[in-house]
Design brief:
Keywords: Membrane, Transmembrane, Transmembrane helix. The chain is mainly alpha-helical and about 280 residues long. It contains 8 helices and 4 strands; from the N terminus they run ββααααβααβαα. About 25% of the residues are buried.
């Protein structure tokens, strides 16, 4: 894969492990978030005001989800970009990695907005397919930029930071129990997704529920095993104090997986029963 080189002139290294870089606000980041927020807000208002729309569970869920995403876009537009506060950037060693991460988040935000508009505010099958394509672009973008960030990690470090330490989280007794429960919740989520999707498709020819059921199944497996793998491979931390804090709170990792699987299953069942 050919390395992708982006401009880093708006990213300033600080030499501080707590905040390795400061990202100057740019017109591109502000405009992207404002335009995406306004676009989603416009479709949300039209969806709410249009006559003949039934106030079902789907209506309230999509309205709440849209409100949350709109608030996220406008918040990012006001506060600016802060990649240094993200867990994914803790092991970055050069400015190019931060530049790639920033553009990854921008493209993900754009594809998420279009996918949300297509899947939530239209009942047309063709528009739904377009939404699924943009959702696929969301995951492809994530994968592509992760590979580019790995390639950029081979560049000379230019963040002026002292060496980091490598630790393996492992499993405490509580974390081990929560991990077993998380695996069980993953199995339930996969079963719920396949049951709801296949039953809707076979009985009602509802391909939309089948697609969302498959998404739930794949996401449950992906999230659970990704977080499970994180507990068993070395991670880079700033110093021993941070390592002690992370080791003390490692039980949160399987708990996050458990919550995601349970919430995803509940929302999918509610869609299946009330929509």
């Amino acid at each position: 894969m050919k390395p992708l080189i982006l401009s880093t002139r708006n990213i300033i290294p600080t030499g501080n492990k707590e905040r390795p870089v400061v990202v100057r606000r740019t017109w591109s980041s502000t405009l992207i978030n404002v335009l995406l927020g306004m676009l989603l807000l416009t479709f949300s208002v039209l969806h709410i005001c249009v006559s003949g729309v039934e106030h079902t569970f789907r209506f309230y869920f999509t309205s709440a989800l849209s409100a949350h995403v709109i608030l996220m876009y406008f918040t990012h537009a006001v506060k600016g970009e802060h990649p240094e506060n993200n867990l994914d950037t803790e092991e970055f060693t050069c400015l190019q990695q931060y530049a790639l991460f920033i553009w990854k988040e921008r493209l993900k935000s754009a594809s998420l907005a279009v996918a949300l508009i297509c899947c939530c505010f239209s009942d047309d099958d063709l528009v739904g397919v377009i939404g699924i394509l943009f959702l696929a672009f969301f995951f492809i973008t994530t994968w592509y930029f992760k590979q580019q960030i790995k390639l950029a990690g081979r560049l000379a470090p230019d963040l002026n930071l002292s060496p980091r330490i490598q630790v393996v989280l492992g499993l405490s007794p509580l974390a081990a129990k929560l991990e077993k429960v998380a695996l069980a919740s993953m199995a339930v989520a996969v079963g719920v997704g396949l049951w709801g999707g296949l039953s809707s498709f076979l009985n009602d020819s509802n391909s939309g529920m089948l697609i969302w059921g498959l998404c739930l199944s794949f996401c449950a497996v992906g999230v659970t095993f990704s977080l499970r793998k994180m507990m068993r491979q070395p991670i880079s931390l700033a110093d021993q104090d941070e390592a002690n804090e992370v080791m003390r709170d490692r039980w949160i990792v399987p708990l996050i997986s458990l919550c995601i699987n349970v919430i995803g299953s509940i929302v999918f069942v509610a869609f299946r029963l009330f929509c």
